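Notes from the 1:1 (GR / supervisor)

We went over the backlog. Supervisor wanted to see one worked example end to end before approving the batch request, so GR pasted a single chain during the call. The sequence is below; no edits were made to it. Supervisor asked that the structure be written out right there so they could see what the output format looks like.
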Amino acid sequence: METIAPFKLWICLAAIGCVLGTVSALSIQARPSASNAITAIRVAHLELFWAKIAFRDPAVHEAEFHLDEAWSTLRDRRYEQSVFAAYEALQRVRDIKGGVPSLYSGHWNRKKSESGNSPES
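Structure output shown during the call:
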């Protein structure tokens, strides 16, 4: 009787582990979640904010339209379309900015690795 209890415990733990592994694998393969959509919208919103301050371009209104579309599809729980609309807004902002580096680009890393700033020199 005493040897059966630990055996049942190990079987239960193994079953719980299998269920958690399956749920984790399915959630990774799933479509974008609300948090993914909110992150994409926030990044696009920040880039648009700085672009509106720095540039007077009529294409800013198009980027704002895409950002509004992203928020409305987020409210409708269509997360994939929301991420896509935020991406479109971000692309419009980057088209407006042209060669100006993005806040989230590798510009800061490139600046550190320039010849005068590297630790090797």
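Supervisor's comment: The chain has two domains: 1-30, 32-112.
Batch request approved.
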